[in-house]
Amino acid sequence: MKKILFTFAAAALLLSGCGAKGEEQKQSGEPKIVATTMALVDTADQLNIDLAGIPSTSKEIPAKYKNVTQIGQVKKPNMEIVQSLQPTNILSVTSIKPEMEKALNGSKVKATYYNYNSIEKMQNSITQMGEDFDRKEEAKKLNARYDAEIAKINKKIKGKKKPKVLVLLGVPGSYMISTEHSFFGNLVELAGGENVVKAKHSDEEFIASNTEHLFKLQPDIILRASHGFPNQVKAMFDEEFKTNTIWRNFKATKNNRVFDLDETLFGITANINADQSLEKMYELLYEEK
């Protein structure tokens, strides 16, 4: 009987110790952060922020997060995995907020949405992230990169005529037109160009249009971007520009000013390589290197 009581007491003591440890971890204030896009993962890496979860991706993952749990697709995270991580913070971007809110519906998990639709808005988000996770100096240093690049481009474009630019965003089988409110449109303007397609509303990043209307705008340059499946999208655009008489007669087509954007530099939202994206955009618009 004494042996049984001793065993029970020892077990209770062990469990008490484990509980105290768990409570200690809970009270330590250490955040458990899940980032839902690679743009946020790369930002967190630059700010030296630990992550508990990252999106599943075929892109290069920063070495810091090679062994971090992957939570599934950007717009459709696996909520069982997410909740198993017991995150204190879920980080996402405003451009996919409707999809994320739908995914999070019914769970107790709340997300913080950062705006990455332009370089300036990304910089504001980086500053906010630095404040949220005590990385103010790292955020300031990262933002200085973009300030320096913008200042450099401003000097280059001073006094130059603005080329008129049309940006097409393709997915296999269809495409949309980029407006000045998209990241592509922001890069065009910062690099000294003019977006020929203007949005009617401030939340319109991409709109539908027809080639007849676009032909009337006569852009000097046509840029073709892809959102996933870049090889398929390029093949689609090549076929469209080869077989559609209207595209063949665009001034930009006749002058060989149609360019395909590299998806690693030109995503639908800004990322930490935005300074390189801006430099490349300038080179495309003015044919300078």
Automatic annotation (TrEMBL):
Domain Fe/B12 periplasmic-binding: 32-289
Matching Gene3D superfamilies: Nitrogenase molybdenum iron protein domain (3.40.50.1980)
InterPro entries documented for this protein: ABC_Transporter_SBP (IPR050902), ABC_transptr_haem-bd_IsdE (IPR019957), ABC_transptr_periplasmic_BD (IPR002491)
Keywords: Cell membrane, Heme, Iron, Lipoprotein, Membrane, Metal-binding, Palmitate, Signal, Transport
GO cellular component: membrane
GO molecular function: heme binding; metal ion binding
Gene Ontology BP terms: cellular response to iron ion; heme transport
Cofactor: heme b
Leader sequence segment: 1-22
Entry keyword annotation includes Heme: yes
Family: Belongs to the bacterial solute-binding protein 8 family.
Protein name according to UniProt: High-affinity heme uptake system protein IsdE
Protein source organism: Kurthia zopfii
Name of the gene this protein is made from: isdE_1
